[in-house]
Amino acid sequence: LKSVEPKFGKLPDFQFALAVAYFGANQFQDAANILENLVLSNPRRQDRVYFLLGDSYFNLGTYDRAEQAYRKAIEINPKDSNYYWALATLMRKEGPDKLDEAIVQLKLAHQYNPDDPQISLQLALCYESKQQLADAAALLEKVVQQAPDLSPAHVALTRIYFRLGKKTEGEREKAAVKALQDKDQQKVRPNPAPQSVLDDQP
Predict the structure, then answer these.
(1) Residue % of the chain over a pLDDT of 90
(2) Which of 107, 61, 67 lies closest to 86 in space, CA to CA?
(3) Per-residue confidence at 2, pLDDT binned at 50, 70, 90?
(4) Helix axes 117-129, 99-112, angle to 10 degrees
(5) Reported pTM
(6) Mind listing the pLDDT tens digit for each residue in 46-96?
(7) d(CA 171, CA 167)
(8) CA atoms within 13 A of residue 17's CA, in its CB half-sphere
(9) How do residues 20-54 score in pLDDT, each as one tens digit?
(10) Could you tell me which residues come within 8 angstroms of residue 22 by beta carbon, excluding any fewer than 6 positions away?
(11) How many CB atoms lie under 10 A from the CB of residue 90?
């Protein structure tokens, strides 16, 4: 990108691509600086610019500015579930007193993207944190049906079933977790060399 900056450097699309490159290289302050200037030029898809700006500030630990950027992205494009997800993640990061706000944002994310099991999983974990165990279990039961290989959902459901005193269901989920772990181990296990290759060894 630097090689063509003299020619295209002032174009908003180039500036956004440069910010993305800085973000990918973990140079979050450089990305934020570019994006702060970029929003002043009224670029296309301002919501994406504010979203990346929020992510940059989030990674810098500047949570108040991250929140402002995420809320601006939502204001511009209120139908993108990723923006609510990001804001909810920030709310959870800021502590238990922001948990209710995180739930609100995750519910909105779920409204616009009901088929994403990760959103449902995070919402269920929020319910668990608020001791709404029955609500968490009901949501996680749908998640594991929708995404049976999503191990964190089975782990959470195992824990919640035992907390609810549902030992039979907890043991069932515990077995499901072990089966998924065994499946993952088989995926990474190296294949044995063919016998013909072994025979050729000196």
Answers:
(1) 79
(2) 67
(3) low
(4) 160
(5) 0.80
(6) 999 999 999 999 999 999 999 999 999 999 999 999 999 999 999 999 989
(7) 6
(8) 11
(9) 999 999 999 999 999 999 999 888 889 999 999 99
(10) 28, 30, 31, 34
(11) 23
- Show the tokens assigned to 26: 């973990």
Q: CA 41 to CA 24: how far, in whole Å?
A: 23
Closest by Cα among 145, 132, 140, 143 to 157: 140
Angle (nearest 5°) at CA 76 between 71 and 80: 80
The answer to whether 163 touches 139, Cβ cutoff 8 Å, is no
Cα–Cα distance for residue pair 178/170, rounded to 1 Å: 12
Distance CA 44, CA 13 (A): 8
Count Cβ atoms within 10 A of the Cβ of residue 22 and give its class: 0-12 exposed, 13-18 middle, 19 or more buried: buried
